[in-house]
Amino acid sequence: MENLVGYTRRNFMVPIPRAASWEALNEQFVRDAMARRAQRLRGHTETIGERFERDRAALLPLPAARFEACNKTTVRVSSISLVHYRTNDYSVPTHFGHHQVLVKAYVHRIVIVCGSEFIAEHARSYEREATVYDPLHYLALLEHKSRAQDQAAPLSGWQRPECFAHLRRLLEARLNKHASREYIQELRLLETFALEEVTPAIEDALRLSTISFETGGPSDRSSSLGWEYDKLARTCAVEKANFPNYLLRLTELELLDRDRRSTERRIRQAKFPVVKSLDSFDFLTIPVLNKTLVLELTRCEYLVRKENILLLGNSGTGKTHIALALGLAACQRGHRIRFITAAALVGELIEA
Description:
The protein has 352 residues and is of the alpha+beta class. It contains 13 helices and 7 strands. A 4-stranded antiparallel β-sheet has the order 1-4-5-6, with no helix packed on it. Helix 5 (162-175) crosses helix 7 and helix 8 packs antiparallel against helix 9.
């Protein structure tokens, strides 16, 4: 082995090779090795490669798992989401703070694993006392502390296309104090999609003047985009969906949410004493009732024809239940309804 290392150094690394990256240098070594395999040594009729293939049959098979040419060490993540290896610090996502992680130090990169989950990768630094940040690791935290983004060290020096700065200026002009959080949400798309995908999308949004989600959360009446985008982005990443498909699905969710909120608003405005549907109505207790006709009325075609419905029967036969159910069906089909009893209507007319 020592002779082979010496041979490799003398023949493949003299003069000292130069390459743009570690990957390019490895490719150069592979080409040199393949050229070596094609050579014939003195006194042999076969090439080195042919002789090796013949000898391979007598060798043990390679292990199923590829050998990792790296130094492994276990460390604990600091409170500011940094992992210390040798003389430098490397960032990890903020929710891994204080976790025990495994650092795999390769020649040209640092890989950090927590349990069975890959959580970070950085280009290895050979400087001393350097801190290597990935800005994406801190965006989730900055979304909750968005005013700190200008002072955040992980974002310092983060180079992005000009359209990102343009987007931020427009958000600040339109949303004032909500602009910082909105901008961080836009940046968090980079956690799932490549910069080459997000940049054209932002440029298109700027060109079409459609730059903002409605702010808010599920507890208020605002758009669902503000709280669904991150969950859907992660789902699309698992499914390997592209960015246009992600936007399409996000828009579909928004349309469904708007339709739901509109229906809920119409039901509130109808002032039903209680919300009932035909699903809970027992048609068997009233055999003479035409079930097919009642179900057909839920299509609300009588409203289009401007026709009235009269429900006649003794007390306790389900007239109010059916009226409430037909009113609910009308709300669900986009009609505005007002439910009122005859006694209440007379009382309102007298007061008027």
